[in-house]
Amino acid sequence: MLREGSWAHLLPWGPVDLVVSNPPYVFSQDIEQLAPEIRSYEDPAALDGGEEGMDIIAHILALAPRLLKDSGSVFLEVDPRHPELVGSWLRSRPDLSLDLVAVRKDFCGRPRFLHIRRSEAQHGCPADT
């Protein structure tokens, strides 16, 4: 697992085509409701994603524009509530040039896998709006 302070060491590896992560994404208030075998054997730091389960996800996405090649992708396993949260978070951060391009379902039909792509770098003057 990556801790915030250790992330900078990834930048020399870039630019890369893709990042794949199963980050800690459980909402803090949901930890106690996890199955006993999960709570007993998993490191809580590998599960607890913070208040909305977004703490590590947000750090990964904030780092992604500096780590990914143009049109590079991030693939994340997330809680079924995250597609909407991540989509909103990305729309609030247009400076990151990341787009949620696909949400895939798990075997139970829950939205659990996100494909986020870096937009190609803007060259020259920005388009008029």
TrEMBL record:
The keyword Cytoplasm does not apply. Keywords: Methyltransferase, S-adenosyl-L-methionine, Transferase. PROSITE patterns: N6_MTASE. GO terms for molecular function: DNA binding; N-methyltransferase activity. Coiled coil: none annotated. GO terms for biological process: methylation. It comes from the Eukaryota. One of its GO terms (cellular component) is mitochondrion. Signal peptide: none annotated. This is HemK methyltransferase family member 1. It comes from Rousettus aegyptiacus (Egyptian fruit bat).
